[in-house]
């Protein structure tokens, strides 16, 4: 099949008839597939079941410093969990606070605290007329939901192949004091898979924001989530905390990470890494919120993984299960969609997503046709603030949960729907 652009109206119509026949057959078959959320598959969850055996009624619940994890105390985490999370983020344990079961609520609390109590002595954001935020797009829908919930005005920043458009970021933050933050997923970004280049990280660290309380929300959710064992295929990014310190902006960044997609989503360990000044400020609020998080879960994690080498080896087991799933989708797209020259997609080296850009004005239609055929995709537009993709073209594919066989079927449906929606749009023009 030649590129659709080279086809006459008659040829496009002929192709459309064939595709609609295929779609009708798909509608008749009883399909139920879900590629909407980046959830680990059951086989991945099984990898961590050994964690359930490292502690029982006869175990020693003391930390390396002799602290009894069964009791109150250690507000910011047990030392060995701090070390584990520090290793994941490549920072020093002194810069780490271990929180609860997941990182999204640390991000929520961080925004919330800034609204009610300000940032390091600055005016609480709730007292300001306007709070604005930079949102590299496409991005993570739940980030955008947090800032939307607080009534923040979100500004789209385009993503390039090496990170957000830094010319735009630098200009906006230096000119507008109302801009208080930016959402970043610096490695294997959700959904583009992009890793920020050294230059981008350095430019972030050297920002000169008009707002003293501007913060980079560096959500390193996929820090160790490589798809390949070969180190040359593993993305490495510069350490943002170090770079901010070197650039004289030590307090400008909050880094987040969790073991949600290392052990169990919703029952993992989550942490923040930031400057000592920020840590002291945050701990004051933490101490009001809680007497301490779930230390038994922290202990279970460190006993199971043993050390960072253990964590890395575990991630390679995840990679071995995830790779065939990404390959299933990517090889179908290459085989059955590429020649039509109507879409572009990412080939990530890690993370949980493939980002597909279809022809402008077609994403919603594709997603809804897939839904009618029994296949759930992340809602079109979800990868943009307010759920509004200005071009209606981005679709996030999450291949982790289904089996490779189902992913081949799902990709087929996605491809047929993409082709139909595109031809119909072309014929409209
Ligand atoms: N950040 C990003 C970029 C994610 O993709 C996800 C999960 N989809 C999360 C955070 C959620 O992490 P947690 O489970 O630690 O809240």
TrEMBL record:
UniProt GO MF annotations: transaminase activity
CDD domains attached to this UniProt entry: AAT_like (cd00609)
Keyword Transferase attributed: yes
Pfam families according to UniProt: Asp_aminotransf
Entry keywords, A to Z: Aminotransferase, Transferase
Superkingdom to which the source organism belongs: Bacteria
PANTHER family tied to this protein: AMINOTRANSFERASE, PUTATIVE-RELATED (PTHR43799), ASPARTATE AMINOTRANSFERASE (PTHR43799:SF1)
Name of this chain's protein: Aminotransferase
Lineage: Bacteria, Bacillati, Bacillota, Clostridia, Eubacteriales
């Amino acid at each position: 099949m030649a590129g659709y652009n080279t086809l006459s109206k008659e040829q496009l119509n002929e192709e459309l008839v064939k595709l609609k026949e295929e779609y009708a057959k798909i509608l008749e078959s009883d399909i139920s597939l879900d590629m909407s959320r980046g959830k680990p598959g059951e086989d991945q969850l099984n990898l961590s079941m050994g964690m359930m055996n490292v502690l029982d009624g006869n175990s020693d619940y003391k930390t390396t410093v002799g602290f009894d994890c069964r009791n109150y105390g250690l507000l910011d985490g047990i030392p060995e969990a701090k070390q584990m999370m520090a290793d994941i983020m490549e920072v020093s344990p002194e810069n780490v606070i271990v929180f609860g079961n997941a990182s999204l609520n640390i991000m929520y609390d961080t925004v919330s605290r800034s609204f009610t109590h300000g940032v390091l002595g600055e005016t609480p954001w709730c007292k300001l007329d306007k709070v604005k935020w930079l949102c590299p797009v496409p991005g993570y829908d739940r980030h955008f939901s947090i800032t939307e919930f607080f009534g923040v005005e979100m500004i789209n920043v385009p993503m390039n192949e090496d990170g957000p458009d830094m010319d735009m970021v630098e200009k906006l933050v230096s000119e507008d004091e109302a801009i208080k933050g930016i959402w970043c997923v610096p490695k294997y970004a959700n959904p583009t898979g992009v890793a920020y280049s050294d230059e981008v990280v350095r430019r972030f660290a050297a920002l000169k924001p008009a707002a003293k309380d501007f913060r980079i929300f560096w959500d390193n959710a996929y820090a160790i989530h490589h798809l390949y064992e070969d180190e040359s295929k593993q993305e490495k990014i510069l350490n943002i905390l170090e770079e901010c310190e070197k650039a004289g902006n030590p307090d400008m960044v909050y880094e987040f990470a969790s073991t949600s997609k290392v052990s169990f989503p919703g029952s993992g360990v989550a942490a923040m890494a930031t400057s000592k000044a920020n840590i002291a400020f945050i701990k004051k609020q933490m101490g009001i919120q809680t007497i301490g998080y779930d230390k038994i879960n922290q202990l279970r994690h460190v006993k199971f993984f043993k050390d960072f080498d253990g964590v890395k080896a575990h991630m390679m087991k995840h990679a071995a299960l995830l790779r065939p799933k990404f390959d299933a989708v990517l090889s179908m797209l290459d085989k059955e969609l590429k020649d039509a020259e109507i879409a572009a997609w990412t080939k990530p080296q890690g993370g949980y997503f493939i980002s597909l850009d279809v022809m402008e004005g077609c994403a919603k239609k594709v997603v809804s046709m897939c839904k009618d055929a029994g296949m759930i995709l992340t809602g079109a537009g979800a990868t943009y603030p307010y759920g509004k993709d200005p071009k209606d073209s981005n679709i996030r594919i999450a291949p982790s949960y289904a089996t490779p066989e189902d992913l081949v079927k799902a990709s087929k449906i996605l491809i047929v729907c993409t082709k139909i929606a595109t031809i119909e749009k072309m014929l409209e023009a």
